[in-house]
Amino acid sequence: MSPWFAGLPLVLILVVLLAVGALALMRRNRRTGIKALLGLNALLMAGALALFAAALNAAPATAGVGDGGAASTAVAMATEGSDSSGAALIGAAIAVAGSSIGAAIAVAYTGSAALAAMSERPEIFGRAMVVVGLAEGIAIYGLIISIILIGQA
């Protein structure tokens, strides 16, 4: 088992405890709580960037290379175009992340407007949900693009 996977639950528990502590601190002193939450966000961003850098510098897996059998042939064929496949995977991740963020912003605006309109006229529920569903379709487009990119990698 990789040390990354073994330490992941501990990191998750630590982040949750820090977030709960920052929220409790925010109830007492709002300015200090906001500073604590910003510090926690900076810590999480630094960890994510370190993980991203480690993923970019990782070597491909080479299990079974020494036996000269089918496994070594498959690994050699898989790592032959690793530069382009790595770029395609990063492009797929960017497509999913960008479309998900865009869909979240669109759903936030259309959902709040739909709820405001439904509070005045409840009979427009169906039309309002169609608009919110169209906004969620943006994320599906990003997912389709990522599937196409992964398929070509």
TrEMBL record:
Transmembrane residues, as ranges?
A: 6-25, 37-56, 87-116, 128-150
Ranges for domain V-ATPase proteolipid subunit C-like: 90-149
An example of a Gene Ontology BP annotation on this entry?
proton motive force-driven ATP synthesis
Stored InterPro entries: ATP_synth_F0_csu (IPR000454), ATPase_proteolipid_c-like_dom (IPR002379), F/V-ATP_Csub_sf (IPR035921)
Q: Where located? A: Membrane
Q: Which domain of life is it from?
A: Bacteria
Q: Where mainly found?
A: membrane
The Gene Ontology CC terms held by the record are: proton-transporting ATP synthase complex; proton-transporting two-sector ATPase complex, proton-transporting domain
Name the membrane topology term. Multi-pass membrane protein
Pfam families referenced in this protein's UniProt entry, alphabetically: ATP-synt_C
GO MF annotation: an example: proton transmembrane transporter activity
Q: Which UniProt keywords apply?
A: Membrane, Transmembrane, Transmembrane helix
Q: Which family does it belong to?
A: Belongs to the ATPase C chain family.
Under what name is this protein listed?
ATP synthase F(0) sector subunit c
Whose protein is this, by species? Arthrobacter sunyaminii
